[in-house]
Design a protein that fits this description.
The protein has 284 residues and is α/β, with parallel strands linked by helices. The protein has 2 domains: 41-142, no CATH class; 156-277, no CATH class. The chain contains 4 helices and 18 strands. It has helices at residues 2-15, 20-39, 120-123, 239-243; strands at residues 40-48, 60-63, 66-76, 83-90, 102-106, 109-111, 114-116, 126-130, 140-142, 156-163, 174-177, 180-190, 197-204, 216-219, 223-227, 232-236, 247-250, 264-268. It has a 7-stranded mixed beta sheet with strand order 5-8-2-3-4-1-9. A 7-stranded mixed β-barrel has the order 10-13-12-11-17-14-18. A hairpin with a 6-residue loop joins strand 3 and strand 4. The longest helix has 20 residues, at 20-39. It is elongated and about 115 Å long. It starts with a helix and ends in a 16-residue tail after the last strand.
């Protein structure tokens, strides 16, 4: 009996360290679990028109290049018209969960304004943020597919153009009058019935007098050709319009009153006949 007890004590004394490692593992797991929730901040939801390469568990939320959050899920909204991205903010990034904060997707981009977002070629697409200036809490936001600091709607009037297809029209494209840039395309979306494309444009107040109730808008083509049996005419516009497109507009001589904000116009595929002869005095 004494020998058996001695063997049992020897077994316990020789194998106690075997149980030490699982115990340490449990302690480490518990510490990581607690640390995770202590450092986890608000969870916000950002809606986008499309996923634009955003991936759950991989895409980061950044501010001035610093990671301030991570994308948890990317799901289609119940309306199936948007994508809802759930983002967990770091604990020290709670100031971004307020009204007025802005979020946009950063992707590689090359255009006439320069080259941007090339870091995404190595790190992947990410969401950039700008904190709001208020303290009012907010958890749901509408994001942009590009930096909306270059698509400003401040001090502008919004109008809508309706077309059967978007072709080369994109957010950030110019809206021109007689070759002068007087506005910008700020959004391109599908109509509620999915039968047409709605193009939102914003015109600065100083150019609002140009937009009349009978103003005609059309897609700007880089090359326009008028081929006839006895004469032909080919007009080549700017290099930007050839590569990027945009929207042009004009108003006939028998112009109407200044269009009301958020008025809707038809976006034509080509300019109307003899529009170059229109020369109304569009005074205030």
């Amino acid at each position: 009996m004494t020998n058996t007890i001695h063997k049992f004590k020897s077994f316990i004394s020789s194998s106690w360290f075997v149980w030490l490692f699982p115990f340490i593992a449990v302690l480490i797991t518990a510490w990581l679990f607690i640390d995770h929730f202590q450092n986890q901040g608000h969870v916000i939801k950002i809606s986008f028109n499309e996923s634009a390469g955003l991936q759950a568990g991989k895409t980061k939320l950044r501010y001035r290049g610093v990671v301030i959050g991570n994308v948890d899920t990317v799901e289609i909204a119940e309306s199936i018209e948007e994508v809802i991205v759930s983002v967990s903010l770091n604990k020290d990034a709670a100031r971004f969960a307020v009204e007025g904060s802005k979020f946009w997707v950063v992707q590689p981009k090359v255009d006439f304004q320069g080259v941007s977002g090339l870091d995404t070629l190595f790190e992947g697409t990410y969401i950039s943020a700008q904190p709001g200036t208020t303290t009012t809490p907010k958890n749901e936001f509408k994001g942009q597919l590009r930096d909306d600091s270059s698509i400003s709607t401040a001090d502008t009037v919004t109008y809508y153009l309706e077309s059967t297809n978007a072709d080369s029209i994109n957010g950030g494209d110019s809206v021109t009058f007689r070759g002068l840039n007087v506005g910008q395309v700020t959004k391109v979306t599908l109509s509620k019935t999915a039968q047409t494309i709605i193009v939102q444009i914003n015109i600065p107040y100083k150019f609002v007098r140009l937009i009349r109730s009978n103003t005609v808008f059309w897609k700007k083509a880089g090359i326009q050709a008028n081929l006839g049996l006895f004469s032909s005419e080919v007009k080549i516009n700017s290099l930007e319009s050839i590569l990027k497109g945009g929207i042009d507009f004009s108003t006939p001589d028998n112009f109407g009153p200044i269009a009301k904000p958020q008025a809707t116009f038809t976006l034509l595929a080509k300019p109307p006949k003899d529009y170059e002869k229109w020369n109304p005095k569009l005074e205030k």
